[in-house]
Amino acid sequence: MPAQQKKLIFCTAGVLSLACALGAAAAVGTQLWVRGSVLCSTGALLVNASGPELHKFIGDIQYGLFSGQRVRQCGLGGRPSHFSFFPDLLRIIPASIHVSVILFCTVLIVFALVAAGFFMLNAFGSPYETLHGPVGLYLWSFISCSCGCLIMILFSSEVKIHHLSEKIANFKEGTFTFKTHSEQFADSFWTILVCSLVHFLNALLIRFAGFEFPFSKSKDSGTITGAVDLMY
């Protein structure tokens, strides 16, 4: 492939990696990971609410990795409140999973920046044969893509399996019991998915630029080596 086309491909991959790093950093600091609604089951059972009356007992909840907000309704109007995971909710959430999600987000941002830098080095500099070359490009893209997948798996398990929204809604609630009415992942969660797909696309761009996979060997080189061995 001509050098100009390779430069264009590497520049494109570098810009995509940089955009992923900035997008992931913005996603980590927002409260747009989960949106949903919670039902005040205690109040609804007391008055046997159904139909239109049930809406008076449905509140909203929204949170990210560090903080969030909720509006709890039990037929007497909404009670808005804000909360933070550290240190308010640290005792009721699966702390090891939550910290792991934040850690992998940090690794994703760092290695996306590293990948962007190495793509630019390969586009405008003289690439080395090891970490600056195809092995490094595949490595950084693979690490970033893997971290994005792990973030989605861990956070999904925290929300769905460990019922994170219900634990947050019932935090410091002694009288009423809240249950999840509806729940969906929001923009920041899907940003991490896009970042993972972009890094997978970058790996394809590396292959498209003419680089062989690091673990592949040329058949011709093997044949020549074998012939040399027979001579000696």
From TrEMBL:
It is a multi-pass membrane protein. One of its GO terms (cellular component) is membrane. It is found in: Membrane. The keyword Signal applies. The chain crosses the membrane at residues 97-123, 135-155, 189-209. It holds the Pfam family Clarin-2. One of its GO terms (biological process) is sensory perception of sound. Residues 1-26 form the signal peptide. Keywords: Membrane, Signal, Transmembrane, Transmembrane helix. Its main location: membrane. Belongs to the clarin family. This is CLRN1 protein.
